[in-house]
Amino acid sequence: MKIFKSVAKFIIARATPHIPWARFPLGSREFIFEQLYRRRGPWLTLSELARECGVSGFSIRGDYGFILGSSADRGIVQIYAESGQWAERANRTFVDFFAGRAGTYVDVGANIGLTTIPVAQNPKVRCIALEPEPSNYEFLVANVARNCTHGNVSTRQVAAFSRRGSLDLELAPENLGDHRIRLGRGANRMGEDQRPTVKIDALPLDEIVGPVEGPLAVKIDTQGAEPFVIQGGQATLKQAELIVMEFCPYMIGRMGGDPETIAAFIERNFGSATLAFREAGELESFRQAREVANDLRELATSKRDTLGYYFDVILKK
After folding, report:
1. Phi-psi map region of 42: left, alpha, beta (phi>0 left; psi -120 to 50 alpha)
2. What is the pLDDT of residues 71-120, one digit of tens each?
3. What is the spatial distance between Cα 26 and Cα 14, in angstroms, rounded to a whole number?
4. CA-to-CA distance for 174 and 77, rounded, in angstroms?
5. What is the pLDDT of residue 193?
6. Which residue in 169, 172, 112 sits closest to 136, CA to CA?
7. Which CATH number among 3.40.250.10, 3.10.20.740, 3.90.550.10, 3.40.50.150 corresponds to the domain 82-316?
8. CA distance 288 to 298
9. Were 150 and a residue from 13, 92, 123, 168 both cysteine, which residue would form a disulfide, CB within 3.0 to 4.6 Å?
């Protein structure tokens, strides 16, 4: 608590230099500091102090080791700082899949590595981690170097897409796991059209992965670009025995993607599937894949305009 009181003092002094805080009674000052900390919370307080001091990142200790992440991130990095975990359900699914055996794991949308590092602890698994955003990619490379000691992880600063090319990536200001490919000018109900953009390279997944060794598992979390990932990765993805893929009707629709690409792919290539709401939701029982595909078709329409509605689709042969 003492460190955060000091942080609060610093921020107040920098934000309101015209107020003579030193003249306030000590008890009043302590009350103000206490209320600021309680209202804003430790992460936001620390994040604002980092910005004032020119600190761009933190090293955070958690279940996956010491992880470097942006001090501005109020999404993945904040959750890891507060809980020591990220995407624990999906990570456990992949770790269990490869338990005691070799194989290939492809992480499409690896961010800073929290969905690659747990799998890479198995030295028999070849891991391929893809992240297009420059800052996230730098953290990814650093985190892999620090926490993956078996030399079994390769990283690529590229977006998996339906075709080769250069794309615009919208940069989310606070949730640094919410960067999105911009294709035209779709709905902007979250103010996405006001986001700054950066150019990124894109390649079909089939060109990135190449020959697959052993059982294949794939994670796809691309903020609405999942149909395009499937279009460019048919040869690779049909070999997968396990896929965990995010499905967000609003983001898919905004990007102009066709949910039918996902539904048809599931029906053609998988025997069973289930859904789990967001990162922490409980898994439903596995059902026939065609039943889940039909659910996705319905949700793509009924939830198209529902902001913040997304879930994982877990697919098995």
Report:
1. alpha
2. 999 999 999 999 999 999 999 999 999 999 999 999 999 999 999 999 99
3. 19
4. 10
5. 87
6. 112
7. 3.40.50.150
8. 16
9. 123
